[in-house]
Amino acid sequence: MGGYDFLTTLEAGRANQRLSDEDQLSFATEQGRALVTHDVRDFMFLAKQWDAEEKAHAGIIVCRSKPVRELAERIRWYQDAYPRGIPGYLLTI
């Protein structure tokens, strides 16, 4: 995806380590990165929990299984719609 600065869990050395969703969100937040996930249910719950605890995050994009091209197009739309990022937002694709 040209023009995007993204980091996979594998590239970050965080894949297949049984890290909690909260740990992954904390890491993304520390990196100033929005988190993109297919784990809709758990991350919607986690976003609500962090909001209730007034904990900030750099954004969460939850998406149901979509073809990669469609996912990339929707993320590009979000990038254009939110040029300053999506801190604190929970967006769905």
**Number of structurally distinct domains:** 1
State mean pLDDT (0 to 100 scale).
90
In N-to-C order, the SSE pattern is HEHEHE
- Lateral strand order in the biggest sheet: 1-2-3
Radius of gyration: 13 Å
Characterize the largest beta sheet: strand count, sense, and whether it forms a barrel. Answer: 3 strands, parallel
End-to-end separation in angstroms reads 17 Å
Q: What best-fitting shape do the alpha-carbon axes yield? A: globular
Question: Count of DSSP helices?
Answer: 3
* Class based on secondary structure composition and strand pairing: mainly alpha
Low-confidence parts, pLDDT < 50 over ≥5 residues?
A: none
Record field, number of beta strands: 3
| Residues in helix, % | 40-55%
| Percent of residues in β-strands | 5-15%
What tags apply to this protein structure?
93 residues; mainly alpha; three-stranded parallel sheet; 41% helix; globular
